[in-house]
What does this fold into?
Amino acid sequence: MMGTYKSLRVLFHKTNLDASSVVNVELENRLNSPATVKYPYHVGNNPLFAVITRAIYELSETIWKIEQEIQKAWNVLPGVAQNHYFYTLLVEEIQSTNEIENVKSTRREVTEALNVAIDKNMPGQPKRFQEMASTFKLLIGDSGGETITFPQTLTDLRALYDQLLGAEVSSEDKLDGSLFRLGEVHVTDGSKSIHKGVLGEEEIKSRLSVALDVSSAEKKPMLVNALVGHFMVEHTHPFYDGNGRFGRFLLALNLRNILSAPTALSLSAEVMRQKRKYYKAFLQVEDPMNMGEVTFFISDMMDILLAAQMRLVESLRIRLVNLENLSQRIDVIDKEFKSLTPYHLQTLFMLGQILLFGPRRGGSLDEISKFLKRSKSTVRPMLKELTEAGLIEEVSRRPLVFALTPKGEEFLELEKPSFD
It folds into this structure.
């Protein structure tokens, strides 16, 4: 995507004359360019800098344009479809960010953890990844209106880490500094060490303070700075365990504010698909021959982000077609089956949306009664009638959850998308 703009390493190896002199002149030109953003953060002996090239500018424009398409499609979705598609994105995000670090988690495990995060009164033992799912869910807010904001201080940052991953960290990886680690740590690509984290807690604190400042909403260019801030956090590696997952959550939290929650929750899955490119982007910045230039990291991360957006757009397009087909089928049923009341039809429409958009099969009694704006005592007899007709079934008693049966799916002419 960068066209004729080459890294300093490539320039050095392509120069037949005095390569060092040519690179030094080019470095000075880049550092003094009006298109350059400099950061008070060092990689090796070099201060970090980015050149906002034409390619990066065009990528940014494309990302903003695609984001408008996403928002337009998203706003067409009914509330039920939005909520349950968010759950699908959350499950995929959590599973992907785990898998990038070779932390094995099944879709079922993450879905069960999310179910507990959604219904805090659900009985049973705590689920693996429950705290992680609960924290990720705050990216979209919960039923009580609670949400999560980007950390402003180092204490906030540590508290967020504990909230997200505290239950997942083993005893030998517990932090031993006032906020962060005291000992050494190495970054791996899932199979081998590729980077040694910053040494010394005071140095870690200093670097993370810069990362928080760079990532703040007031700093422009916002998208570029969010990506650079992500590099800084990952490069610093402030924890013994969970750095990658925490860093990507922090980036998602920032992207939620800059772009949207659906886009932010699509990134880790795309990083997983382009894992080699993701890790290579970090290594390129750390290469001493590139003199602290983060330009190509920004470009690569924007490529990954754009790919995530394009996949999201296609997913929304297919789901909107399926939703329209479901809506039309409900209209036909309304005309042909007079024994079904509007409440029967609304319930079937709701459960159809959950099937098409969600990671789990059904809706709880609470959710159905809120959707119908009827009391539970009023809704129960209607659900019993649909159950006796073989269209829906109980899939859980505590909490009480109903889902479409195969007969119900056939009745609604539904086919769940298979591309997730």
